[in-house]
Design goal:
- With about 220 residues, this protein is mainly alpha-helical.
- It has 7 helices and 2 strands, in the order αααααααββ.
- It is flat and about 50 Å long.
C-alpha cells in the first residue's frame, strides 16, 4: 500500500474500510503524542521525576474550529510550551489525514470534495459559535439543519458503499481487491483420462481390460 497516497493525497478514491482504518491510525497517533507529552512532563525543571501522572489524549478535530474563534487565544498564555507544540503539530497532522481520506471517500461516492464543507465545516462552525447565538426560536431551524448535515455526512462517509465500477474520480478501489483475489486463485486442474487409464493386454489373472493407474 502507498501510505503517502493513502493518508496525505486528495486525489483518487477510498473505500469505507480504509476510512475507518485511517481514523484508527489517527487515534493511535493521538495516544502516542499524549504518552510522549506525559513522558516529557515526568521530568521537572530540576530533572527529578514527578510523582503524579495524568494521561490526556485530548486531540479532537473540534480544535480546528477554535482557530477561527478569538476566545480560546486568551488561554494560550497558560499553556505549557511542550503542550502547545504537541497540540499544534498533532492538530495539523490529524486534520490533514482526516481531510485527505474523507475527500477521497467522497470521491468514492462520486461526489466532489467540496461536499466536506457542508458535511464537516458548516456543522463544526455552528457548534463552535452556537453559544453566542440568542436563545430564540429562530435559531432552532439552523441547529436542526446543522445536525442534519452532520448526520448526512456521517452516513455518506462511513456507512453507504461507494459507486460500483469506474467513476469520474478513478477506478473502483474494491475492484483491485477482487482482481487480486481472482488472480491469486490457481486454475482448476482438468482430468486427463488418457493419463489415468491404461489398456492392459489379457493375462491369466487378472482379466484384461481398463485399469486405473495406481498412485494417481
Amino acid at each position: 500500500m502507498d501510505w503517502t497516497r493513502y493518508l496525505f493525497r486528495f486525489d483518487g478514491r477510498l473505500n469505507r474500510g480504509l476510512l475507518w482504518q485511517a481514523l484508527l491510525i489517527v487515534a493511535l497517533l493521538a495516544a502516542l503524542l499524549g504518552v510522549i507529552g506525559q513522558v516529557i512532563h515526568l521530568l521537572n525543571v530540576d530533572g527529578s521525576l514527578k510523582l503524579s501522572i495524568k494521561l490526556d489524549f485530548d486531540f479532537g478535530l473540534d480544535d480546528l474550529f477554535k482557530l477561527v474563534d478569538p476566545r480560546p487565544y486568551r488561554s494560550l498564555a497558560s499553556f505549557d510550551r511542550t503542550d502547545l507544540i504537541l497540540k499544534s503539530s498533532g492538530l495539523s497532522l490529524f486534520s490533514w489525514i482526516f481531510l485527505a481520506t474523507a475527500i477521497k471517500r467522497l470521491h468514492d461516492r462520486d461526489r466532489s470534495g467540496w461536499w466536506i464543507v457542508l458535511f464537516f465545516f458548516v456543522p463544526g462552525l455552528f457548534s463552535q459559535f452556537s453559544d453566542l447565538l440568542p436563545d430564540a426560536n429562530w435559531v432552532l431551524p439552523f441547529s436542526l439543519a446543522a445536525s442534519a448535515l452532520w448526520l448526512w455526512g456521517l452516513v455518506e462517509l462511513f456507512i453507504v458503499p461507494g459507486t460500483a465500477g469506474h467513476n469520474r474520480f478513478g477506478p473502483d478501489p474494491l475492484a483491485d481487491f477482487d482482481d487480486g483475489s481472482a488472480s491469486a486463485a490457481p486454475p482448476a486442474k482438468s482430468w486427463d483420462q488418457s493419463r489415468e487409464i491404461e489398456i492392459v493386454p489379457p493375462r491369466a489373472s487378472p482379466p484384461g481390460g481398463m485399469h486405473v493407474k495406481r498412485g494417481t
